[in-house]
Amino acid sequence: MLRFIMRGIRILQGMVLVCILLIPVLIFMFLKGFGSNTYDIPIYYQKGTQNPFKECAVSDTTQHYIPDFTFINQDGQPAGKADMEGKITIVDFFFTSCPSICPVMSEEMERVNDMFRDEPRVQILSISIDPEFDTPEILKEYAERHHAESGKWDFLSGDKLTTYELARCGFVIPALDGQGIPDNFVHSDKFTLVDEQGRIRGYYSGTNREDVDLLMLETKILLYGNQ
């Protein structure tokens, strides 16, 4: 009887040893699979935007890219599409007198700025949809409130018609002029992720912490992966 018990113990010990030896192999296989970067970040509008707002002169058959634009930042310096070349850019549309979602969006964007503050390949553009009120002086004060430095996190204002066309036709998000009345402005809460080539790679709710966490994760994947 004792012999059978000892034999069973040896078999059990052998199985435990096999399992222990297999652990490094399993870890290696997992890391190898992870290292192949199978996480898929979509490329939006590869066959055009199909003109969703019925007012945009855009292609409906080829890859959509953010169009050229130049606005003025909080320091009174020009900034726009040329500064996006070769960088990953996170963009939102807002206005400083917004009574609803903008304060939350700006707080969340501040988190994004903190995450990539020391990463020169990532920048942020916050574009005002009320450029008549949001002068560089107003934007400068707003930028300082959120610890933003120009060249890293730029707050932009420009021609109103160009701004709304850029929102609807360039970033493919809704925007409606409030004619100076804060409660009447309409804009998206989305943060838009744009890659080094000017392609849109994702939309994330700027009022949802989990969505913003996902934005930061996918920005890192674009930075360090093969996307």
From TrEMBL:
Record-level Gene Ontology MF annotations: metal ion binding
Residues annotated as transmembrane: 12-31
Keyword Disulfide bond attributed: yes
Record-annotated disulphide pairs: C98-C102
Signal sequence annotation: none
Keywords tagged on the record: Copper, Disulfide bond, Membrane, Metal-binding, Transmembrane, Transmembrane helix
Source taxonomy: Bacteria, Pseudomonadati, Bacteroidota, Cytophagia, Cytophagales
Record protein name field: Protein SCO1/2
Keyword set includes Amino-acid biosynthesis: no
Pfam family for this entry, one: SCO1-SenC
